[in-house]
Amino acid sequence: MTVRRLAENQPASFAFTAENEAWAKKEIAKFPPGRQASAVLPLMWRAQEQSGYWLPKPAIEAVAAMLDMPLMRALEIATFYSMFNLSPVGRHHVQLCGTTPCMLRGAEDLKKVCEQRIGAQGHVGAEGALSWVEVECLGACCNAPMAQINNDYYEDLDPQNFVKLLDDLVAGRPVVKGSQIGRVGSEPVGGLTSLTSLYGVDGRGPGPEAAKPDKEPSLPSDAQTGASDARR
After folding, report:
1. Model pLDDT for residues 136-168, shown as the tens digit of each residue
2. Do residues 149 and 96 share a domain?
3. What is the pLDDT of residues 26-54, one digit of tens each?
């Protein structure tokens, strides 16, 4: 496991917005008295979102104080979970999977795109638009290679569609989340090969062969039912 440290430059203070503070109190109320520290992960996550997708030290301190927990405990949690960014990131933070399935499907080429388009890992690109880091498995191996950008998954990437995706995000143009080649879920690239009568070849609905039967199935007659009862 890599060592994770807080950024050297920190803001002077942090305070939840009124809306986020009300939300935090509702989260804390979900837990019994004396167990309010159980809300630490969602509160840190909301603090990170409010801070532009990174978690500064004053935010960690504020969460610890709100939950009446030792600051060291809060620091241990913040530095353990890689979902918490301990230094500033771009408006679009790319977490690129480099684990085996993605590596075999072309993640190394995507790393080169990140290095050329953004810079080194941890570097925030021009105008604060992009940053990137390589991460371990994100659980979308069927659609490898893939990346998580902020809260969304982008799958079936290649250097060409990845460059376009980054350019569109920076320019504020609409982007398609999920697969970048149009497949649904984790279906085969060429379309479904089974259960097509239920989901269609493209996975978007019943196929033409899913016609209704010519007639409804008949119910047992009274005579048949009586005969069955007699045999019992």
Report:
1. 999 999 999 999 999 999 999 999 999 999 999
2. yes
3. 999 999 999 999 999 999 999 999 999 99
- Number of H helices and number of E strands within the chain? 9, 5
Domain count, the chain: 3
Entry pTM = 0.77
Q: Which distant-in-sequence residues (6+ apart) come within 8 Å of 5 by Cβ?
A: 79, 86
Domain with 48, as residue range(s), is 18-80
**What CATH number did the domain enclosing 125 receive?**
3.40.30.10
In a 13 Å sphere around the CA of 91, the CA atoms on its Cβ side amount to: 10
Beta pairing class for 147-149 and 178-179: unpaired
* 197 within domain boundaries: yes
Q: Looking at the domain assignment, is residue 76 inside a domain?
A: yes
**Domain annotation covers residue 202:** yes
Domain-embedded: residue 226: no
Please, are residues 76 and 27 in contact by the beta-carbon 8 Å criterion?
Answer: no
Q: Give tens-digit pLDDT for 172-205.
A: 999 999 999 988 888 778 777 887 787 776 667 7
What are residue 93's phi and psi, to 5 degrees? -95, 115
Separation CA 71–CA 67 (nearest Å):
10
